[in-house]
Design a protein that fits this description.
The structure is a homodimer of 332-residue chains. Chain A has 332 residues and is an alpha+beta fold. The first copy, chain A, has 9 helices and 16 strands.
Chain lengths: 332, 332
């Protein structure tokens, strides 16, 4: 069977996903909204091959570790079941950005894997089905299937919990200035973190309040209202970190430089600069600004002590197939 | 009428007071537990004098500003009403520590004022009545009336919302290492902050969970169980800051150095040092350790970049009268 290669972007959430109603199915405690990050990309090739003696999973040029291997195989198993095939798969995945440092590498990885594996198995899945499939690998991966600005409905069960685009990449010229503070792997991975969310006395309140935040954020995007957007994005980020810091055991992701960037961003916005921040399960800060203010914003951020690098990313498109003229995924 | 002089200590809360059920009466949203800080003291002299043409309020050698003047006069009015006198008062108050920098200066100030004013008006109030009176000036001041480790019951109304000692200063040899990061006045005062607490989507959850935290904290103190104490104290501090950061508008008190101290304290405890932290409405960190580990703790804290000073304080006694041989509060 022919190999297929898919590209997908990670995404940065403005209303965050944190905690599951169902850990196995990765049904989220609350809906979320994100944008795809054009500048960052995962490229994944999948080939089902009757001659393979075992599953082969390579990530960034190395044989995948046990945990990553198992997560990939689980998704591939689901595809095989749907396609009624039983060949082993070659999976080759590469990122152009560091893993495990607050840039959601698993989102892009499982979105690209879902698309490439489905196609390689000759399944004809629509966007919603691909989004659901990606969700099974990593919750936020479902948001990396559609393009632009994306909303993932919490849904009532497996079938209606998937992501849809609410605005195209061109709709609003926002830029994510990814302020890299540390590229060390984060101390607690997201899957473990999601499982702890319910131990915080604050998680229920955060979840109950989510419909309000989703409405405000969606409307702010549709109205291109930066002031309203900035306020809800920062509030939502604080809400997630509030839950993290009060979980049992607590999870702390902020570094002193994280806080310095947060302060600098708030101070700049108070002076009229259209910039706000959001922080995932890591120490890096995503400073979101308008295209017109990206030069000024990047300069400010780069001058802060403890900042290693600022990577810029425009709004990205959907997960998509790329031409793959070879039959060997190792030669892409 | 003779002047009376009272001393009172500020206190550091282990289960925090944040938000009121009644802003006027300062009836708290939840109960709280604290210890008095022996090393810090406010000394306040009050004299009611028929010859005074107006109220005179001096704080730290200067005429009090309008807002502070009004808060003092409100409490003095309450005392005059109870004592059925109508002379103006001279109030002279001095702290041996900076105001408005995360060390609760108003708690010690209103505790000392309540005691000195009641006595100067020849009222004979018991500890509960003094604690309630102090509460009317500043909520947490009610906890600076009794000695040692203190619990303030939220109560059902004005009459049963006051603080009592749950253990004497000698009961457990804890030390508060006050890590001074900034002595700038905080951006938002506590009274304003309390009024904003209810605007956070997290405040109800924090309040609803308070009985659990009070039980754990009280038992940890009574059992001198540092591990249980450390965990609940840090959790409670995070819960309050979670509410602050998600209020409308949000309140941010942490500085990068605040976070650096938090990390260092957690790392030291993970290695077996009996130390934990709590942070009030300011950037300073209160690192609580046992008497036996104070040398090691102070050394560690003093070595952190951004730390200006570490002040040590043992557990303090109750608010108390001091001899005042003069009739002029300006000569104390």
């Amino acid at each position: 069977m022919f190999p297929y290669t898919a590209l997908a972007h990670p995404n940065i959430a403005f209303v965050k996903y944190w905690g599951n109603r169902d850990n196995g199915l990765r049904l989220p405690a609350n809906g979320s909204i994100s944008m795809n990050l054009e500048g960052l990309v995962t490229r994944t090739t999948v080939r089902f091959d009757a001659s393979l003696p075992a599953e082969r999973v390579n990530i960034n040029g190395k044989i995948a570790g046990n945990a990553a291997h198992q997560r990939v195989v689980s998704l591939v198993d689901e595809v095989r079941l749907m396609a009624r095939i039983n060949h082993f798969a070659w999976v080759e995945s590469e990122n152009n950005f560091p893993s495990g440092a607050g840039i959601a590498s698993s989102a892009a990885a499982f979105a690209a894997l879902a698309l490439a594996a489905a196609k390689a198995a000759r399944l004809d899945l629509d966007e919603a089905a691909l989004s659901r499939l990606a969700r099974h690998g990593s919750g936020s991966a479902c948001r990396s299937i559609p393009g632009g600005f994306v909303e993932w409905a919490a849904g009532t069960g497996d079938t209606d919990s998937y992501a849809v685009s609410i605005a195209s990449p061109e709709y609003w010229n926002l830029v994510d200035c990814i302020v890299v503070i540390s590229t060390d792997p984060k101390p607690t991975g997201s899957s473990e973190g999601h499982a702890l969310a319910g131990t915080s006395p604050l998680q229920s309140a955060r979840v109950d309040d989510a419909p309000r935040r989703l409405d405000i954020c969606r409307n702010a995007i549709l109205n291109r209202d930066f002031a309203a957007f900035a306020e809800i994005v920062e509030e939502d980020s604080s809400l997630m970190h509030a839950v993290m810091m009060t979980s049992h055991p607590p999870l702390y992701y902020w570094q002193p430089a994280t806080l310095a960037v947060m302060q600098a961003v708030r101070a700049a916005r108070a002076k009229g600069m259209p910039v706000c921040y959001t922080i995932d399960a890591g120490s890096n800060v995503h400073a979101i600004c308008t295209g017109a203010s990206v030069g000024e914003t990047a300069k400010l951020l780069g001058s802060i002590t403890g900042v290693r690098e600022v990577r810029l990313s425009n709004v990205g498109g959907p997960a998509r197939l790329v031409e793959n003229p070879t039959t060997n995924p190792y030669e892409i």
